[in-house]
């Protein structure tokens, strides 16, 4: 089990501080993360809250799931920690896949390229 919970169906005007105060009724809140929309910068309507212990997280889910806040019924679930996909590391200075490196196409202006080809 995890000490991190998912909080869904949040009002878009709710702040991290307000959510922290609300969730602190169930236990010690360690971290609150509210993702925002990249284009508008406003909250996306859900958050992740990390508690100090798994028992506090379970208590929050039991007591707050379905609770009405700002006219919306909250949805709480235990969040599963997903492993991030690891990318293969490249050595410093090695060319990127698909790139030509120094020995490939010349960079710079293409001016006079036709004249060079004809001669």
> Strand fraction band?
15-25%
Low-confidence stretches: none
- Note the main sheet: 4 strands, antiparallel
The CATH architecture category of the domain at 4-78 equals: 2-Layer Sandwich
Instruction: Determine the structural class based on helices, strands and strand pairing.
Output: alpha+beta
Overall morphology: elongated
Q: Please tally the β strands and state the result.
A: 6
Taken in chain order, the helices and strands follow as EHEEHEEEH
Q: Total number of helical segments? A: 3
Average residue-wise pLDDT: 83
Question: What would you say this structure looks like, in words?
Answer:
With 119 residues, the chain is an alpha+beta fold. It has a domain of 75 residues: Alpha-Beta Plaits. It is 21% helix and 20% strand. It has 3 helices and 6 strands, in the order βαββαβββα. The strands form 2 sheets. A 4-stranded antiparallel sheet has the order 2-3-1-6, with helices on one face. Strands 4-5 form a two-stranded antiparallel ribbon. The mean pLDDT is 83.
Summarize the structure.
The protein contains 3 helices and 6 strands; from the N terminus they run βαββαβββα. By secondary structure, it is an alpha+beta fold.
